Amino acid sequence: MDNLFLLILLPLISALILALLKTNVAKSIALILSIVSLALTIPFLCQFDPNGGMQFEKNWEWISALHIHFHLGVDGISLPLILLTNGLMPFIIATTFSKDYRGNFYALMAFMQAGLLLVFMALDAFTFYVGWEIALIPIYFICALWGEGDRIRVNLKFFIYTFLGSLLMLIGILYLYQQVPSHDFEWTSFIALELGDNTQRWLFWAFFIAFAIKIPIFPFHTWQPNTYTNAPAAGTMLLAGIMLKMGVYGLMRWLLPVVPTGVALYGQFAMILCIIGIVYASIIAIKQDDAKRLIAYSSIAHVGLISAGVFTWNTNGLSGATIQMLNHGISVIGLFYVLDIVQQRTQTRRLSELGGIASKAPKLAIFFMIICMGAVGLPLTNGFIGEFLLLKGVFQYGFWFAVFGGLTLILGAVYTLRLYQQTMLGETTDETMRFEDVKGGELVVLSLISFLILYIGIFPNFLLNLSAGSVEVLSTFLGR
Q1: What is the pLDDT of residues 353-379, one digit of tens each?
Q2: How many domains does the chain have?
Q3: How would you classify residue 386: left for phi > 0, otherwise alpha for psi between -120 and 50, otherwise beta?
Q4: 386/368 Cα distance (integer angstroms)
Q5: 419 is in which domain, residue-wise?
Q6: pLDDT for the residue 258
């Protein structure tokens, strides 16, 4: 059995095993199995040829009557996201060790991991759609069953938004299937089609809306702040750290190469929406008192810049988007974890009720500073090279787009430093008076996240080289 298939099979087996466990031992087994998944990813990194195109392909006939194939493969765009998925899952599981979660919670996480990996590997549109839907179902139940506040109403809105977007994408996929002479769902068959301008116009919107909801891009973002805020910490990490990357990946894998004329016609409008989202979400983030909601809006701003990089359709923008998807995932996991630690110790997320934590927990304050600097994009942190390439790509696309897109650096620094100041600095409050510093598993997780932020910031070439060849190929579709 090929290892590429094992990457998906192992989380499915893990989900079955974990679903049967009713004791606290489930979290330890879930962590071990997630580390095994990460270990299985390493050989692909070692054997991958950055200039080799699509690699490790495996193609099995699935539903012969409809010419549906279980076709998998990876290139320099998908491999970083596979690494992101399998790399972040152990961190997310480790952050839950202080919670009283049983096997069913971790089973849903493993099932979602399988769906995410299928999305990032699928070279058959039907298989891609199956993975897209598989990833949605478990996160809905994670947020609905273990969330807080008005979680049922909030998650119903999230489900309806994403399901309607998926339905539009399915209509587009089925139409393309009918146009392929051999009637199959192969990615190569879709990109080889000679589609008319009018056809590409409506197909652009069918795919774009589905991906824009998942990312989310303004104005399709309204489900996100409440969902992130009311979800359990692990659920928020899954949504912000990994799941939203499905939408950006969809833009790069399916939208740009399949309907290039549609992107040429409407790409500037999509770019404007991305830039509006950056400024709008950043301003709202500055005004937030709920720390978790602040990070939720900041995520909209960050992924707005990543999406803008995709629509520049130049190598700088696409390279920046690819590396920044991974970097954003690492940083946002760290941010939400620190806020979860603060909430567990103080029973509040309100900035007006916090302060002075650094005097009680200096280790946490140092880790939080490193994570915040990575999120802001300070030089020598992981966020710098990605944001630099993104802004360079946007500048190549248009000067004024870069001017407004660049506001993310200024506004991002404002709300991030405000978050740090109002939680870590100043006088202690009644809630933070007896705050305990991080220790044990918390110390290990935050140390590893901080190490990754600094290591990638100082040595980014590995990630840049990983995607260079595939980005170069993708950029050629513009002139097709």
Answers
A1: 898 899 899 999 999 999 999 999 899
A2: 2
A3: alpha
A4: 20
A5: 268-479
A6: 93
